[in-house]
Amino acid sequence: xxxxxxxxxxxxxxxxxxxxxxxxxxxxxxxxxxxxxxxxxxxxxxxxxxxxxxxxxxxxxxxxxxxxxxxxxxxxxxxxxxxxxxxxxxxxxxxxxxxxxxxxxxxxxxxxxxxxxxxxxxxxxxxxxxxxxxxxxxxxxxxxxxxxxxxxxxxxxxxxxxxxxxxxxxxxxxxxxxxxxxxxxxxxxxxxxxxxxxxxxxxxxxxxxxxxxxxxxxxxxxxxxxxxxxxxxxxxxxxxxxxxxxxxxxxxxxxxxxxxxxxxxxxxxxxxxxxxxxxxxxxxxxxxxxxxxxxxxxxxxxxxxxxxxxxxxxxxxxxxxxxxxxxxxxxxxx
Length: 334
Known about the structure:
By secondary structure, the protein is mostly helical. It has helices at 2-8, 27-60, 66-86, 99-103, 106-123, 126-132, 135-147, 154-172, 179-205, 209-232, 234-239, 247-273, 276-297, 305-333. Mean pLDDT is 79; it is low at 1-25.
């Protein structure tokens, strides 16, 4: 009988000494978790730095052409990735006729996202810029539902509503209201959400890889954007800017261009190892820090209690949202 019981219930099969399933924590799963964490942290730091640098270039130094900054960022991306490929550090497919089809619609979303974000940064104070960016999370959920067939729980939807409600309250008492700035930042939200979902879709297909997506995004759009800047007069305005003799400005302009590439790379990395929604969460948490720094040191924030209350409602929603989403992901993995 004892032998029969042992055959029916073999000792130790699928169990750890503590009674849990064996293999819960393996070196592979730990390494994957570290990669996800590092990718998210890399994106958060890059996203914070580029907002600060762009704000300095476009507002503090009053550089007149956001489009020229965008062109500089595209050029930096092409040069860095092409050099990396020539040195054998990275690899991505060579250009052929199928590339535009494989990339569509990412290049259009990329340049629209980049230019609208730069214009929004130029025209809005940092606290309002960051709180209005909360709408991108709501839109990311919408696009992930449509493109990737994802569903979201009621608590997540409730916290997103709190973020959006706080943004509306803050906007209702924004004494520095700029309609064009609001239009640019809401356009940026739509394009950011669509781009995040499409990047995840393209990365999952593994046709071009993250370096190929970055390189051809910039390469395809750099000429049309330069042509637009030339015919609109933006290029001439940028070249005739009087601050090019200021070495500190030049350093920050070059840093903005390089950070544009680093930001796009960090977004790809975070989306690849995590998800488009996680990327939005990290950006949202980063925006909390930017909001309070902008209030204290931005120089263009006008304080009102209603605006301040709305900002903090949106921030509280962001924190709860991040906590709920993180715990739900951990529960799914358990």
